[in-house]
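>> received
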Amino acid sequence: MKKDTHPENYREVIFVDNTSGEEFLLWSTVQTDETGTYKGKEYPLHRIEISSASHPFYTGVKTTIDTAGRVEKFRARREKATGK
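>> returned
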């Protein structure tokens, strides 16, 4: 690499997808306090909620998530507002 072109904290980091458990080793400047092991070597670890390993666009798996009955809450608000 050319000197003085990348930030000082530019290093290899393990990104772990919390949904699928998939691990990716990438170069990044992300700040993290966790460390993890990847292929026998220790690296900084950063957890992410979704990646290409779990995103429906890439996996082709369609899921409908209804957290805490959002649809029912919406219908109740609509009925209250329209008086039906």
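>> Residues 11-82 form one domain.
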